[in-house]
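By way of example, what follows is a protein record of this kind.
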Amino acid sequence: MSPLRQWWLYLLSKRSEVAALDYKDAYMAKVIMDIHRLRADKAQALVPLRELHPIHRIDRESAQQATAARALALLARRDELLARGKLDLAALSEIIPSVSQIKVVRDGARWLAFEGNGRLYAMRQAFGAECALPVEVEEYRFARPAKIQRRLRRIRRLNELE
């Protein structure tokens, strides 16, 4: 499937969520634009699942359905993935495909996922929140990360995750 078609299908799948947007979503969108604009570098990283933290809840029906379907897909191959010893990009793309990788910003001992929260919730359902299985993510790095980290923590507070 072409990248343009993938993006189009992705946008179509999100249309039901647009009506439910609120100030938290607008702030989150601004912070994510700042992450992309201000990053100094990005690199692949393997991060234990238990250290990956979402920045928002999965509380819309369409997102909950997609997360449940992804969790079932992961559960169907749970033993194979545990034997493999990691959830790398190839496995994630095959089992729970998406238009982008899980994208994170490091915040001390934890990694805050600003893209891929639904996949993260699905992995937690399939393997448990305390699972140490390494997950391949795209880490965004900054010369001075404090402002971005503070904004991501604010999003988590607005979504009652902190």
The first strand starts at residue 41 and ends at 48. The radius of gyration is 15 Å. The helical segments are 3-18, 23-38, 61-76, 78-84, 89-95, 117-127, 146-158. The chain has seven helices and five strands.
